[in-house]
Queue: 2 jobs
Job 1
Amino acid sequence: MSTRASRLAGDRLLQTMSILVLALSLVALAALLYDIWSDGWYRLDWQFITSLPSRRAASAGIYPALVGSLYVLLVTAVLAVPLGIGAAVYLEEYGGGGRFARLIEINIANLAGVPSIIYGLLGLSLFVRAFQMGPSVLAGGSTLALLALPVVILSTREALRTVPMSAREGSYALGATQWQTIWHQVLPSALPGILTGLILAMSRAIGETAPLITIGALAYLDFAPSGLMSPFTVLPIQIYNWVSLPQPAFAENAAAGIIVLLVLLLTLNAVAVVLRDRFQKARQ
Amino acid sequence: MTTSLRPLVTRTSDSPGPTTPVKIGVTGLNFFYGQKQALTDLTINLHANIVTAFIGPSGCGKSTFLRTLNRMNDIIPSTRVEGRVLIDGEDIYSSSTDVVDLRRRVGMVFQKSNPFPKSIFENVAYGLRINGLARNRGEMEGRIENSLKAAAIWDEVKDRLTESAQTLSGGQQQRLCIARALAIQPEILLMDEPASALDPIATQRIEELIYQLKVDYTIVIVTHNMQQAARVSDQTAFFWLGQLVESGPTEKLFTNPAEKLTEDYVTGRFG
């Protein structure tokens, strides 16, 4: 009887502790959001979003940084998504667990953990200097694509692995080639999982500051980037720049910039979640 | 593992074989998963337009053998085949064999029904599309209707072709998988315990279907249900630890087997 009581007590203790830990992290997040919101909400208006940066905090805006972030993210996605999914399909479906494939696998897993500043240094010497792209949108997007690539590859492989063997066998048994099987059966089934990985990778890319500063993204830009070879800045750099200024009005601008960045992030995630659910439903 | 065992005598029953021609001729077939030998020196002829059943305990190699007949084992890494499998006199393991074409000619239905997560229509259309077997929409629809009719499921699904295949019952899903296999007009139909997950009524429907299909197809069915083997098959082969113990007309194998091992198995006196 007493052991049963003590087992129940232990069970309740663990449950209470789990709830406490969860509550703690939620409270911390809520406090952070509240703090930022209370600092920045009244700076949020159409003027803030459409204005160029300025020496006067009240008339400064985030337009170049917002457009820059979107541009860079687009380049990152265009490069990292097909390359990442392609690499994952090769490793999972064709590579066949040979020694070479295993070597690549270990390296990719390690790359996912490399500090982002290292990618910045690589981007600086490879894209900016060797390929003579300069500190452009293209160089920035390419650098972030390198950063996102391991995450895309790892999560896509995870998603491909969840497709049951029976789906592949059903396709092969009808005289499908390996590529037909991958294209018509495996990839569509894995798509929800792949999209989840893409959300994670793109969310990481959009929040990066260090590698873009390293490749020479500008802190102050009084025009929005107009093309791939244009110089650029991104939201995190703009925010970082404002935070480092002494006037309290700029700290409010930074808080408003963070809200915009968060909304952008949440919107992207929401779009991906909706897409994922639609694909999942379409296949049930 | 199996190689250390005393070799079993392989003998074919004395009564005359089926009158139809040999469709699949297997000679000296060995199969390995890595180092482990799963099939040892199989030699057997499978005849056209009859049903041949493979029986034997779990792990005896009957499913593995079935999957060597359409080279489905190719997709499992580090497997190896020795010996010859002739279909219509052509070695399917020769380097000139197109495995995609082979699988089009040798259809397969799996133990667990595996419809694609698509509509009923698209499930049957898939094989036709990838093999380019329908030139237009009308031909596609005609072939799909014929396949669903041949698999005795048309009446149940004709009004809901655009619905997801996942909404069908287990037995319907398995008949849909049979329809899908029939759509590309194979010559041989391999069935790997097709009714093992079904209730008696659904099982009976599948068995009736098999009986009708043998007019047009060469059918090989793996089953661990001996009553089923006795009901649906003309010829039966009994496997034990990766070896073929005995094969012959179903009736003889069940009533008057040549081998003591076969008799013990079919009468349930085992262990």
Job 2
Amino acid sequence: MAHAAAVNRPPERGLDVYTQKVGMWVFLCSEVMFFAGLIGSYIVLRFGALENTWPEPAEVLAVNITAFNTFLLICSSVTMVKAFAAAQAHDDQGIKKWLLATTLIGAGFLGVQVYEYNELINHHFTPSNCVVVRNGVEETCSILYGSTFYTMTGFHGFHVLLGVICLGWATIRAYRGHWSGGNSRGIEILGLYWHFVDLVWIILFTIVYLI
Amino acid sequence: MTAGAGEHSHPRYMLIWLYLALLTAAEVGVIYLDFLEKWMIVTSLLIMASWKALLVALYYMHLKFEPNRLRLVALAPLPAVAIMIVIIMMEYV
């Protein structure tokens, strides 16, 4: 009797979402913990630093260049959702155009970040050295400032690099007609990752460069 | 998978993009307002950053259109993050 009842019971509904999307969201949850750990350690080290050894961001970092870079990443988010919308609308030309735009803008973000790192290193700001000029006098500051900065922005940059590689591959597939006929799942999942990378940068930009 | 679970009306992506761009400009502008107290600047920056993050999550990551169960999955790590931040702040504030 019990077996018959079990057989007749309707199947468990689940999340009403296809499996790959659930998988990406679970992965992104782990990424939230990863970046939260980095940001948490940054907060601990910053609050725990000796007086005047943790410089104000504007003393060391180029806030305006990074603000432009943030704008770039925001633009790449909108081109990404446009690519997804084009895939859902069976607009093959739109898919190619918007995926290519997202890839190029993402690569542009990386280029600006490499330029920024190069400038910082030229000014002797490295993961193990921190120098700030106050009233014309060079002062050493906490090397933890450098190591936390490069750790957080470096890991984020690495995530952007992986995203750009995947976007490049998705763009190649678009030109091969892979996403034709409303096949938008792959683009949606890639989009989730890309928007998450943008979301993390929104938080990092505020905490590292502005506060 | 129920039909249409993936389909939904598209939010106004360009309007969201405009909000994000304006909020970023406002954030950068706030740090140059020297007459404000530091805690005011920090609070406004965190509010604007959270607002931007919410816009991206709801409209670009489509959480606004997903089933509640998937939203629970997406929100799952946030309590742990909140606990970590509170414990850290208790250490220094």
